[in-house]
């Protein structure tokens, strides 16, 4: 393919073609907020566009690029595999690469989780887990946490508590029910009926705004699930592989779930991959005999490229102590962000674990700022967060986004390999944006007016 020519096409031509043949609504959104660039390369924590402008990536493809972009060790492993002209997806065989990656994941996973089923995405991983829970327990009901996110395919969407994602797709899976996150009384009330197959939750809620539960919540949730014969499914799709400063967020609480979901960062950002990691006794209740040895299957789930990328990523993370680096960098960034935000009245809280950080904003006290805040929130609930993301991108070359729909929470998920240069660049820019945000009238409030005007014309 003529990659140089493809990536040299003007941005407007690229976005016009995308709008015509892929998703024209999304193209409008990206144009509206000024993110309509054509990115041509990336390395580590940085990406760059056609003009050679460099951007610090604090989005990481929604926590896909934990080890940074285009790591040479992962690239070399994939290139070596391709050079072998190996056999992949034979289907009627047991792949040595899948066997080895399953063994490596079992060694990393908490407790007695020792058996893997490979998938292609986070959503597919959630789907498999829901099927497993119902089959293994013989029960139908699934509990999920308020404000939780597990994906957008039908089963995953049925346990995702966001009206903006669900609207128009009902009815979803029956026998699913939302309960408040971090509420043990509510959990026990529903579990006590002894008809619940599983409770699925993220250990730290990402799209809800980086919500961290009380210290006793997840251990007690596990105990209650065991007491009433239900399975605990922990979704580590976003939090796994070092994001929170441990291999898995479960490890902060010495938690052993019954089923754990992983995806995103497992392949180093190269190949779609996911895995359900569970105990052998649960697995055997699903794949119960030879006739049911493939009762659930995924055509591309054990493809060799994904397995190679997963193995190389784990090797790299262990050799370069990426998890330990993430814990140190996260602690430093969180502390320095809190210091930088001190005194800015719209900053309500800075919270996080490792390099999964949320900055929550709240209504200001001073009258001029309050008037602007009220106007923006009346006009468009999701606009405020873009008043931070846009100037960071436009003026400082830093890619970020809000945590979720209509949230006043700015989310940070940089690669786990960031160093002093990246941290200082980000903090300097963030202080400037916060200062501008607290000036009324000021450039960011003028930006808000422009965004409102342009969004109406769209």
Structure description:
- The chain has a domain at 72-319: Type I PLP-dependent aspartate aminotransferase-like (Major domain) (Aspartate Aminotransferase, domain 2).
- The chain has 18 helices and 15 strands.
- Helix content is 44%, strand content 15%.
- The longest helix has 20 residues, at 322-341.
- The radius of gyration is 23 Å and the shape is globular.
- The chain starts with a helix and ends with a helix.
- The chain has 458 residues and is α/β, with parallel strands linked by helices.
- Helix 16 (383-396) crosses helix 17 (420-437) and helix 16 crosses helix 18 (443-457).
Search tags:
alpha/beta, Aspartate Aminotransferase, domain 2, 44% helix, globular
Question: What is the number of helical segments per DSSP (H or I, 4+ residues)?
Answer: 18
Strand content: 5-15%
Strands across the major sheet, in which order?
4-10-9-8-7-5-6
The CATH homologous superfamily of the domain at 72-319 is termed Type I PLP-dependent aspartate aminotransferase-like (Major domain)
CATH fold assignment of the domain at 72-319:
Aspartate Aminotransferase, domain 2
Low-confidence stretches: none
User: What is the CATH class of the domain at 72-319?
Assistant: Alpha Beta
Question: C-alpha Rg, in Å?
Answer: 23 Å
The count of DSSP E runs of length 2 or more, i.e. the number of strands, is 15
